[in-house]
Amino acid sequence: MAKNADQDGPEGSGGAKSRAEQLRSAVEGAFGATAQGAAPVQKRAQELADELVGAASRVRDALEELRPPSPEELDTLRAQVDALERRVAELEGAAAAKPKPKPKPKPKRS
User: Which residues make Cβ contacts (< 8 Å) with residue 13, sequence separation at least 6?
Assistant: First the structure.
C-alpha cells in the first residue's frame, strides 16, 4: 500500500511540506494583492451605492408628492371642508345679525 505524502517520514516530508508551504504562500500572496487592489474599487462601489440610495430616496419622495390622495384622505378633507363651511356660515350669520355702529361725525375745525 502506498503512503500519502503527508504520512511520509522525516526524509520525505521536507519536500512535500516545502511545496505545500510554497503553494500556501503563493495563494496568500495572491489574495493579499487582490485585497489591496480591490480596496479602491470597493471604496468607489460604496460611494456609488450611497449615491444610488440617495437618488432612490429623492425619487420616492417625488413620487409620494405626486401620488393622488387615498379615499380615506379625501373623506378627511371633505369633513374638514364641511366643518369650515359651517363655521363660516355661523360667523357670517353673527356678523349680519349685529347692527353696525354708525361712525361719529368728526368735529369741524375752525
Answer: 5, 6
Based on the number of CB atoms within 10 Å of its own CB, is 56 exposed (0-12), middle (13-18) or buried (19 or more)? exposed
Whether the model pTM is above 0.85 = no
Rounded CA-CA distance 63/55 in Å is 12
Residue 96 DSSP one-character state: H
Rounded to the nearest angstrom, the gap between the alpha carbon of residue 30 and the centroid of all alpha carbons in its chain is 37
Reported as a single tens digit per residue, the pLDDT across 26-46 is 888 877 777 677 778 788 889
Three cell numbers at 62?
417625488
Contact 99, 107 (CB under 8 A): no
Residue 87 has pLDDT above 90, yes or no: yes
Residue 20, number of CB atoms within 10 A of its CB: 13
In the chain, which ranges are E strands?
A: none
Cell numbers placing 16: 512535500
